[in-house]
Specification:
With about 350 residues, the chain is of the alpha/beta class. It is built from 10 helices and 12 strands. It folds into 2 domains: about 120 residues, Aspartate Aminotransferase, domain 1, CATH 3.90.1150; about 220 residues, Aspartate Aminotransferase, domain 2, CATH 3.40.640.10. Helix 3 links the parallel strand 3 and strand 4. The longest helix is centred in the last third of the chain and has 24 residues.
Length: about 350
């Protein structure tokens, strides 16, 4: 039974009776409007490095005091984060970035690939511990916030986010706010972090089920930072997929009821998987957004292997997220598959209650 070193082993795997709680890829359909009127030759040519102006104009209406010049359209949120890190690495100041642990598994790599060093603040009950945050924030160039969180599904309290704004503004520390799940919150409306050195990163992948089109963006009030991103992007990926940008523009104008229906489905699935995991004896936080749970389990690496090879169930090792002794499950799959996957997990647990 070969060891499983990381999430790349699982990404793209499907079929053959597998139940995948792995990749956070929505199984819900995108808005039907995105497929209309795409027979236009201009959609297959080079475009603006910064992104198509009509899309940036539409996005600017969703952000305070924003203009199209405040945005760069990127190849998913991943490129936005990568370019942000590389531009920050060239700025004066500490070469360290503060990450909240557990973290999305790519964050430490993004920091190191840019030539910087990650510093960690450990979450308390899945949320930022302001006392520890204050101890470490003065030694870094930027902090990366992800709310709702992958892998915990938790959201930060608005009071905490406002305190982070205040602290970082006073110290001149950049705030990178990864908000790819901002529309998938069950408890309250999203709170948009504000401040002179805030960089907001977002994507059309999760809200609109458009993962494969790779359309993301970043927004910041700092126009000079935007220009530095453009100067780097022209020598790396050039323009982002023009056809995908046209589809993203149509998604923005889809009826608001589309997103409301999606959130209703995610909430029902949250209730199903959370309730059943509790009944199986797992200890975990109740998600308040996104579509992930992070239950505790002993021998998480071995469990991930056995789930896959013996029970045809994919789960991710919490070790990959800085959370050893946990597994991460995505509930971005229909309820019948969730129920079948949990039945297989229950079979694994029979006689192994000491693992919980």
């Amino acid at each position: 039974m070969a060891g499983i070193a990381g999430p790349s082993f699982f990404i793209g795997q499907d079929g053959d009776g597998l139940i995948s709680f792995g990749s956070g890829q929505p199984d819900l359909p995108p808005p039907k409007e995105i497929f209309r009127n795409l027979a236009d030759e201009r959609l297959f040519k080079y475009g603006l490095i910064q992104g198509e102006r009509r899309l940036r104009e539409a996005l600017s209406k969703e952000y305070p005091d924003a203009s199209p010049e405040n945005f760069v359209i990127t190849n998913g949120a991943s490129e936005a984060l990568d370019l942000t890190m590389r531009v920050l690495a060239k700025a004066p100041g500490p070469q360290k970035i503060l990450l909240c642990r557990p973290y999305y598994y790519s964050y430490p790599y993004n920091v190191r690939f840019a030539g910087m060093e990650p510093v960690y603040t450990d979450l308390k009950e899945g949320r930022i511990n302001l006392a520890d945050f204050r101890k470490k924030i003065g030694r870094v160039k930027a902090v990366l916030i992800n709310s709702p969180s992958n892998p915990t599904g938790r959201i930060e309290a608005v009071a905490t986010l406002k305190e982070i704004e205040k602290i970082c503004k006073k110290l001149g520390v950049w705030v990178i706010s990864d908000e790819v799940y901002k529309d998938l919150i069950y408890e309250r409306e999203n709170y948009l972090l504000k401040g002179p050195h805030v960089i907001t990163i977002n994507s059309f992948s999760k809200t609109y089920s458009m993962c494969g089109l790779r359309i993301g963006y970043l927004w910041t009030p700092q126009r000079d930072f935007v220009q530095k991103i453009i100067n780097m992007k022209v020598h790396t990926s050039m323009n982002t997929n023009i056809l995908g940008q046209e589809m993203a523009l149509k998604a923005i104008h889809a009826p608001e009821s589309y997103v409301r229906r999606q959130v209703k489905i995610w909430r029902a699935r949250r209730d199903l998987i959370y309730g059943d995991l509790i009944r199986l004896g797992f200890k975990l936080w109740r998600p308040e957004g996104a579509f992930y749970v992070l239950p505790k389990i002993r021998n998480s690496g071995r469990a991930v292997n056995e789930f896959y090879y013996k029970y045809k169930v994919i789960v991710y090792d919490g070790e990959w997220f800085g959370a050893p002794g946990h597994i991460r499950l995505s509930y971005a799959l229909d309820e019948k598959k969730i129920e079948e996957g949990l039945k297989r997990i229950a079979k694994f647990l029979k006689g192994k209650e000491r693992w919980l």
